[in-house]
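User: Before I run my own analysis I want an independent prediction to cross-check against. Here's the chain; please return only the structure tokens and, at the end, one sentence I can use as a sanity check.
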Amino acid sequence: MKKVFYTGLILLLWSTSITWAQEHLPQSFSAEEKNLLMEKYGTSDWEEAWERFIESKKDSIPSMRKPKNIWQAPAEFAPADGVCFSWQGYSSLLKPLIKEVSLDAKAYVTVSYGASQVESTLRDFGCKMENVEIIEQRLNSVWMRDYGPFYIYTKDGDREILDLVYNRPRPLDDKFPSTFAARQGWKSHLCKLILPGGNLIIDGHGVAIMTDVVFDPSQGGDPNLSMAELRAYMKDYFGCHTVHVIEDLQRDGTGHIDMFCKLLDDRNMIVGAYAKPSDGAGNNYNILNNNAEKLAQMKNGRGENFIVHRIIMPRYTGTSYTHTNSLMVNNKVLVPIYNRGTDQEALDVYKKLLPEHKIVGFNCNSIIGANGAIHCITKLVMGDPLSIAHEAITEISQGAKVTLNAQVESHNPMKNFGVKFYWKNRGEQNFQSLPMDSFDGKNYQVTLPEMNGIENIDYYIQAEDVQGMYETLPEDAQEESSFFEVMVK
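Assistant: Structure tokens:
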């Protein structure tokens, strides 16, 4: 483990958590964190202290209603609006990552102190500042992947956020998903499941894959969690009907699946491989081979077998190096490299499997000693799965022929006649509908019927894709009295 320097240590005992001021917290537990928890709970058994902590943390979370109408939890290769970062050290890596993201996506940079100075630093570095949003909020660590927001899509076309329990005793980090959701105006759901983002792969069709570290208290897992409970959480909150658990690596600092595995699309997956048994710590050479074999026998949510490709793992030297700890942002992949003789081979795997993507390597030697790389310090802000844009009309003339236009953005194709215009005479109860036509699959239009002898109409637009997800404009037009009002003169 690379030595981590601490600027101070302040113990604050709360009813449910502990916090302290440290600089550059590792992704794994620090020795100070373990000692403070054992002191708080009066035990010399670290795992017992952790178990007591997580039980008190879960007890403090009120019983919440589960998300309704879950359509799916999106895969990481789905369209994204941007990426969340935490400005907590490692600026030599964060700056080029933020710059690359900002070129064509939004970079949300959360800063504990000195927001104006960070903004100036990023501007001077050449970041596209119109795509950089500085968020002033105190955080404990840089490891945004593990505590950042999870996303779900609902059948009525909304993005919502899941706020799980962070598997580290870092309360400022732990509350970030809910505060970020409130900032964006999205609904968030608290969940008592302890599952860091680095230990979850979702295929976007209801299949979830993780390692057995989810049950391991020595790595922040929940030893009281049963497999049945895990499946229930994944179904009720993520909409996943299948959960696979594979073996975690030894001595990699976290046990997370992103340290050796990545799903690139619906089927293709890369899994790490050591050149020879002595290159990996402990039994990791065999663990990777066994995991690759198991993954190749699994099916995605569409019933197709995953296609497993192997990617070289740099030799273990007391630090676990990984090329799978990468970030996919729409049409580009940001890959960790180390100048240890494996970089080009690893980059070539990405280029071969993702020929339409831009593959960019970033030197991660400054951070990998703290048990993480690019994937570990980033969290995608997933794109809107289905949206309608339209400039509302407020008045029309009696007998006039009026064409109404709308733009529909969707992850999936629209069903036949899936975009419709609904209207009714003010005071009537039922809406009439007309299909809207498109010439390019994005821009839609409809010619309104002649409004003779009518004083006012109400209308809304609805879009439905081939998977059954739908959206209305205005939102909730079907459930509430929400529609556009038009005067007919």
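Sanity check: Confidence is low (pLDDT under 50) at residues 1-22.
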